[in-house]
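User: Can you fold this complex?
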Amino acid sequence: MATPEGRDYWKWLIAVFCVAVVASEIFVVRQNRVLRARVASADAAARQMSFLRTQGDRTVYESSMTGKCPPFNDARSGEPSAGPLQVSIYFSLKRDCMSCVEDVVGQWNTALRNPIAKSLNVRGFTEIDGTRAQTVLDRDLEPAFPITHVPDIEDKLAAAGVPTTPVVFVSHPTTGRILLTYAPRVGEKGDPSLIERLHNVLAPCT
Amino acid sequence: MTKRRLAVRGFALLGALLACTTWIACRGGWKGTVEERNGIQYVTNEGEGLDEGRVREELRTVWKVGGHPGQPPFSVVMWADFDAEGNVYVLDYRQQTITKVGPDGRVAGQFGKRGQEPGELSKSRRFALVDSKLFFANEGNGRIEVLGTSGEVFPPVQLPEVRDPGEIYFAHQKFQVARRFVPNGSYVYTYDPSWKLDRALRPAEPQKDRMDVIRSHNTVCPGPDGLWIVHMLLNRIQKIGWDGRVLLETSRDLDWAFPKDEQGNVIPEILVHRACAVDPKGNLYVVYSNPEDWKRGNDVYKFGPDGRLLQKAFTLPVFNATMMRFDREGNLYVGDETSLTKAKIERTEER
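Assistant: Here's the predicted assembly.
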């Protein structure tokens, strides 16, 4: 198909077709590479998710076993030989919602009226900044346990790896190591789980 | 033919005139309204302000203290006041200490500490230097603390009307003690220099729900002819006369959408205003939150004594302003977390 000027348009058409084929091939190869990278990243995320789920299941299981009696063991007398468990309650009158603090303090005030009280040594820690904070503590919260004033408690707790308050740690009477932790989120008021777990821990296996 | 040409020229001229008028109208300027209801002037401030495009204000730093090695380690610079010799007393909110800075910006001493005993401070945000004594709104201890200019302790003042003094100023020959949150009572109480109650200014508004207490969060700025109450969470600024009468209410069109709940109430979670200051001429400067970054508050807008918006004055040379105030000479002091800057405002007329 030559034109009057003598140009051969067939050759041009074939050349254009060849270029289009090569370009589309390059495009497909690139897309394929991108797709493989995405699949690999999705696989990695799935593996990470699976790992986290396993870790989460394990943590939940281990927590759920706290305070239960181990299988195939003899019954115990129930007398703690090492002394009362140390209960440390940390809260902030500056940062925490007032009802959250009231809830935690109220729970431990109630616990200290129960028979388990003799097995616990409860102490509170907060920053008492000013007489108005002291009044709130004495008149509104009325803790049935001693409170220690810690200046800049939020910063000090954060430096010790405790970013949020209120938080409760139950620790071993002699080694001081943490046995149980209670860190309710806002909106989880009235959660009795720690006191229940403590009841379990302190009740002798039969 | 000549008539036709004339008509065409006339239309062209008219069109040009119309275009010019439209351009001038859209160019900026103040397009607000002033409406009087029950003796109160309600000012809306659409547009860019009366002085926008006519006057330019720029800050020139005189000195800066803090924020550098070898300088006092301020935690949060919360307030500053001045004595007759030009010394500046700077309150650090976190430490509850006062640093005395000389007129040249050099540190001359430090006193004050946190605690509950007489002479000790807790959660103090403001103090007023009157007759060589510093009177602190000692909010955490629920009283007015009195210290000398070298830290001498004087008996504190207990105010039966104000159990939570949030701010204190001395203007119009009286102490003004303001509350940051106002669930009941009044926003401001004024006392004579011997601490005898003068009057309660601006009663609390009826509280419908718990959030209304939060919505009452405010800061006060005294001016030559009255007090400005700047609501921190609402786009609302009021000016109160010394007799307690509300003189005017003003605001500016915010350049971001203001969130409201289903009942149309403003959701009180975003800090609109950060700080305010009144210059010796009675103009109000207000620090607004930066709409692009809520952690920042450094855009300053200027209102005239009549509540009309003058212009966006300048952007402060700090990340987030914690305080702002003028001295008697019109120098501006700006605090952020770690430093206090003294600056002069340079005004230039633009053509």
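The first strand of chain A starts at residue 85 and ends at 90. The domain at 85-202 of chain A is CATH 3.40.30.10 (Glutaredoxin).
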